[in-house]
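Board notes, transcribed. Complex of a protein with copper (II) ion.
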Amino acid sequence: MLATTRRRTLQALGLGGAASLAGCASSAPTADGSKATDAPAQTTTPQPVDTDRIARDPTNVPDPIDRDSPAEVDVTLRSEEVVAEVEEGVTFTYMTYDGQVPGPFIRVRQGDTVNLTFENAESNSLPHNVDFHAVAGPGGGAEATTTAPGESAELRFQATYPGAYIYHCAVANLDMHISAGMFGIILVEPPEGMPEVDHEIYLGQHELYTNKSAGDEGHHEFDMGSMRNEEPTYVLMNGEKYAWTPAGRGPAVTAGTDETVRVFFVDGGPNLASSFHPIGSVWEELYPDGSLSTAPQTHIQTREVPPGSTTIATMNSPVPGDFKLVDHSLSRVARKGCMAVVRAEGEERPEIFDPDPQ
Ligand SMILES: [Cu+2]
């Protein structure tokens, strides 16, 4: 059974590699910078979508761990290639864990043993896998989980160190797979847990590289040349333009004034570091790179989060209003879609902020 599975996997890898290379050649830019003439025909008609929303709900975070001893935890991740809207009228074929971007938030305790089942959906066209930065072992489990469409694999690992870690696809053309949406967070809580807060939210930033400009209607094909040049069409939080904002496809995340919101943020990249900033506030407490072995920094305005890393940061507002969470490389916000909003609701406090003093 195992040998059969492995053989099928290798066959699929061969096919996947050739298909990907062909895609690479056909979408390479020409000498004058225009797209090659054999690039896929452009159309202003979006493709039918497989899902209404590719954007994971930022409030979809598992509860804090309420155990004082290690346990065995069963986790299933399923890779799914799905067509969805980046914004209205613009479709893209995403690659996902469990059908949304970022992948599901996995929460375990230091010392836990994770029994992972990784499934590659039958309808997929490519091999996929998972590399967990929380795994102490070769490839973070990538080779052990490499599967062809229709197959599954199992991996057992112990979470030996605490922190918030990225997981991501790491097959051939891994930059393409991460760009298409294959990344997420696994949080390994320290034995003593984390300080209690009022809200926890989950955001993931990444870049889409397509054969059109941001906002051009129709189906956007993945574009290898743009990715090689690190010139993304979109830079997104949770996979859609302005995914969780009142101005976008909304709604904003809401919290009461003076309530503490903890943000788990992952930069999937694959190429751009994020300068993560809450407009109108600062990060009250911030754990650089998601490290929970060190004391948090305090009152941080902007924190760089490299691709392949995370941060854990808290914010609170004494006054009501909308607080935009952005990459402070602001062209990515104004032109490429990268923003989420936390709306603080409560009483005005003019002694702290008065927009109309008499
Ligand atoms: Cu993949």
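The helical segments are 2-26, 142-145, 174-179, 224-228, 331-334. Residues 11 and 148 are 8 Å apart (CA to CA).
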